[in-house]
Amino acid sequence: MKTVNHWIGGRTVEGTSGRHGEVTDPATGAVTTRVALASAGEAGAAVAAAKDAYPAWRESSLSARTAILFRYRALLDAHRDEIAALITAEHGKVHADALGEVARGLEIVELACGITTQLKGELSTQVSSRVDVSTIRQPLGVVAGITPFNFPAMVPMWMFPLAVACGNTFVLKPSEKDPSPANLLAELAAEAGLPDGVLNVLHGDRVAVDALLAHPDVAAVSFVGSTPVARHVHATASAHGKRVQALGGAKNHMLVLPDADLDAAADAAVSAAYGSAGERCMAISAVVAVGAAGDGLVARIKERAARVTIGPGTDPASEMGPLITAAHRDRVASYVTGAAAQGAEVVLDGTGFTVEGFEDGHWIGPSLLDRVPTGSDAYRDEIFGPVLCVLRVDTYEEGVALMNASPYGNGTAIFTRDGGAARRFQLEIEAGMVGVNVPIPVPVGYHSFGGWKDSLFGDHHIYGGDGVRFYTRAKVTTTRWPDPADAPSAVDLGFPRNH
After folding, report:
1. C-alpha span between 493 and 41 (Å, rounded)
2. Which of 165, 333, 339, 440 could form a disulfide with 344 if both were Cys (CB 3.0 to 4.6 A apart)?
3. Beta 345-348 vs 367-370: how paired, if at all?
4. Closest among 2, 283, 21 to 174, alpha carbons compared
């Protein structure tokens, strides 16, 4: 059986903890791989390798760093299919979706290739007599990234390319459920010329995570995952004096007004709710239908969802693959089987779905719940599966109030032909990312990704300008060069003033 080990100091390092996790093929349910689960000591070894590499990497020129990143981008492009195949094998998403994940990760590598403009400092001359003030941005040191199972290539690429471009060294702790893509990303970085120890991959579970959060040589932690874990990461790392960006869970709403193109809205809802089997932090999981839009929208969603082709991610005909584990599939199914008892109308029930020849896979079909009460489990919880809830309201104002009452504020969307309503929604909705007739408003790489409320802990969003600011700190230097014509210096205990 294949074993995935750590990547530390530029080489594969076998696990020594004696603990391993199982990785399954979601389409078959078969265990295909085992992954080393690190001890606290092994986490320390990964941090030590990054710390040893930091001084030389920090002193490397921007041109040297970007030359490596340009080569890295070319290698990632050449290995797109290989990376995507690993994602499909361990996560289960269809190959086309996996390729899309790689493409979005490449956007951040491209942003990192242009780090020279992102790190330009500021200079103010003559702020006082012969006094200049400059600001530069410098790296933090060793930084860590803890990433989720649903995007095993893209989310790591949201983090480490920018971090190392800024002069930091990096320890990546990917999900133990689909660990192989992270190792390939590190191997390609080494092939591109990234020095040993600048990027390290540490596999493991909570033992590894908590060791990184407490390690005194880790200066900052980036995290993407569920809200309970994001809260733990933020509280623990902050208590140890670290800078933290922790992106949590979501319950993304889509408001559909009566004037919307209902066919377009239904297409968007199905795409955003059931793509990647709903295992996306930006999936639409709640549609809020206003007034007369409700019946026609639900009918259209039902018709489209019933036609989604479900199968193994390796089959080009498949539009939606399995869920990552059997336990997660069963958890998602419980929201559908329990919905009617909590007051919802079950329009489509995808539980019990199987694929011929792959009966042991982690399957569930698209499920649609209508008239979902706000107090029900299906509405309150982040399901993270192909279950779409529809809620009915009478007015725009009622819909916005319902959405703003949610503890989550990751992404949201409005579908309407009314520009005034769209502009008002953009200003009034309490979420970090807003789509207008766009169901999944994931920003391009040179903007930043992040939510509000329980969807983000910490002050910085991820990638874009916020990413550069997170991985660097400002240093301000005030300079005065005396002129021979200056009056003799004298002691002055007064507060300094500019003149």
Report:
1. 52
2. 339
3. antiparallel
4. 21
Torsion of CA 169, 171, 174, 180, to 10 degrees: 80
In the annotation, is 113 catalytic? Answer: no
The single-letter code of the amino acid at 161 is: P
Calpha distance 222→228 (Å, rounded): 15
SS3 132: strand
Which residue intervals of 215-363 are DSSP H helices? 227-239, 262-274, 293-305, 326-337
What torsion do the CA atoms of 281, 25, 212, 55 make, to the nearest 10 degrees?
A: -100
Task: Write the pLDDT tens digit of every residue in 40-71.
Answer: 999 999 999 999 999 999 999 999 999 999 99
CB-hemisphere CA count at 13 Å for 140? 26
Query: How does pLDDT run across 394-416, given as a tens digit for each residue?
Result: 999 999 999 999 999 999 999 99
Distance from C-alpha of 159 to C-alpha of 161, rounded to nearest angstrom: 6
Helix (H, G, I), strand (E, B) or coil at 242: coil
CB 269 within 8 A of CB 397: no
Alpha helices in 307-412 (DSSP H): 326-337, 377-380, 396-404
DSSP assignment letter at 347: E
Q: How far apart are CA 302 and CA 289, in angstroms?
A: 14
> For residue 494, how many C-alpha atoms fall within 13 Å in the half-sphere facing its CB?
5
Can you say how many angstroms the Cα of residue 306 is from the centroid of all Cα atoms in its chain? Answer: 29
Is 304 in contact with 266 (CB distance < 8 Å)? yes
- Residue 417 near residue 259 (C-beta atoms within 8 A): yes
CA angle 50, 53, 58 (to 5 degrees): 110
Distance CA 376, CA 66 (A): 51
Cβ atoms of 377 and 335 within 8 Å: the answer is yes
CA–CA gap between residue 470 and residue 262 (Å, rounded): 41
**Count of Cβ atoms closer than 10 Å to residue 132 Cβ:** 15
- Give the number of C-alpha atoms closer than 13 A to the C-alpha of residue 127, restricted to the C-beta side: 13
Residue 267, judged by CB atoms within 10 A of its CB (0-12, 13-18, 19+), counts as middle
Q: What share of the chain is helix, strand, coil (3-state, %, to 5)?
A: 40, 25, 40
Q: How far is the C-alpha of 499 from the C-alpha of 487, rounded, in Å? A: 15
Q: Which amino acid is residue 81, in one-letter code?
A: D
Q: Cβ-count burial of 78 within 10 angstroms (0-12 exposed, 13-18 middle, 19+ buried)? A: exposed
